[in-house]
Give the backbone structure.
Amino acid sequence: MGDEVPPETGVLVIAGPQKDFLSEELAAVDRYLQRPGQALVLLDPLRAPELSAFLRRYYVGLPPDVVVDPGARLYGGEYLTMQLTVERGDHPILAPLDAPPLFSLTRSVEVLPGEPSAMMAVPFLKTSGESWATADTGVLRAGAATFVAGRDRPGPVTVGVEVAFRTLTPPGAPPEQGRLIAYGNSEFANNFFIEFLGNKDLLVNTVDWLAREPQAISHRPRRQELGVHQFYVSNEQGDRLFWATAVLEPMLFAAIGLALAARRRWG
């Protein structure tokens, strides 16, 4: 990033920074937001702590935690990859989605308190009620976690928020408003995950919303059609299929066979 964000920038996207921001870079982001500007921040667990601290002045908290939702992970998939809960009425971004987003390695996102005249916030993307946010970031290495009461925060856990904030203006000038959307994950937007489930629509709809182009918010055709090229079952659904096909069905056939054998012998 240079000394300033270019003036023609409609939406500033900060996607999964691997290194933290310098103070000069954060100052440039702050000046952009005060124009007012619109920004989308995708931040993974334990990344860019200075950026996380900076976002607090815009009423967005990104705790140093990891979100766990074993029941929503894909069957046979990585432990920290989960399907999110989508309530389409919670935000226009979600309305056209025909499938839930798929997040992998996710942190929680919080709305910090502020004066109603200075900000308005909408937490709109959450995990299921069986999830939790754990302060034990060792789960990123271990790939497994157990809920610990008093340490971990039970779900649903917010992982996506929008904040509209009032910018500083000269005395007598009309009020102006900037907007910021933060997701506690950037992996959903990379080349590997972008075509999965509702990920592409979530990303593009978010940018369209921030660019003040709500007419562009829509569902887009997939390169890989759901149910044909993509077939997903959650961990819970996979367990049910396993018990139905690998346990109950063979037991049923065995019982029928024993009944027929007994009938022939004793009939």
Observations:
- The longest helix spans residues 235-266.
- The first strand starts at residue 12 and ends at 15.
- The chain has five helices and twelve strands.
